[in-house]
Amino acid sequence: MTSAADTIWKYMDLGKFAYLLETGCLYFASPAQFEDDLEGRVPKSHEEAFEALVHDSFIAPIAALRPHFAAAPDSLAAFDAQLAKAGDALPEARRKAPLRFVVSCWHQSPSESEWMWEEYAGHGTGIAIESTIEGLEGLCRASKAW
């Protein structure tokens, strides 16, 4: 179970650290830029919850209007086509979602990770920032950029 007091780590190369020092801002990247397809990915449970929300809030209520078009066959065919198009758009929307947000990835662990050092801190030429979930949330809330 995650706690606000849990230790988190931000590994970065010297270029991103210099950016942090110069601007006072963390670097945020688009998940579309990541080489690792799983990094920054929305959990499958969130995707499924989003699809259920869209279905229950939009698709189902619109589908409930279908009987009102029964008297006009041309309108009914157009209605069915638009409804199908809306449902078909969900997977494409999910695929494009990473292009619409940015992330700053942190590693939750009580201790440093050799693998994270090698992967994200310039193979030993970067730095690691140690914080807590609570500490990072506090900085984000206090930031004037938000």
Annotate the secondary structure layout:
Layout: E1 7-12, H1 14-23, H2 44-63, H3 73-96, E2 107-108, H4 114-120, E3 127-132, H5 133-142
Antiparallel strand pairs: 1-2, 1-3
Report on this structure:
The structure is a single chain. This protein folds into two domains: 1-28 and 104-146, no CATH class; 43-101, no CATH class. The mean pLDDT is 83. The protein has 146 residues and is mainly alpha-helical. 49% of the residues lie in helices and 10% in strands.
Summarize the structure.
The protein is mostly helical and 146 residues long. The protein has helices at 14-23, 44-63, 73-96, 114-120, 133-142; strands spanning 7-12, 107-108, 127-132. The protein has 2 domains: 1-28 and 104-146, no CATH class; 43-101, no CATH class.
Shape: elongated
Fraction of residues in β-strands: 5-15%
Quaternary structure classification: single chain
Q: Could you name the ranges where pLDDT drops below 50 across 5 or more consecutive residues?
A: none
Estimate percent helicity. Answer: 40-55%
Number of helices in the DSSP assignment = 5
Main sheet: strand order: 2-1-3
Alpha-carbon distance between the two ends:
28 Å
Q: Which whole number gives the mean pLDDT?
A: 83
Q: How many strands appear in the DSSP assignment?
A: 3
Q: How many individual domains?
A: 2
Reading the helices and strands in chain order gives EHHHEHEH
The radius of gyration is 22 Å
Main sheet makeup: 3 strands, antiparallel
Give the helix/strand class: mainly alpha
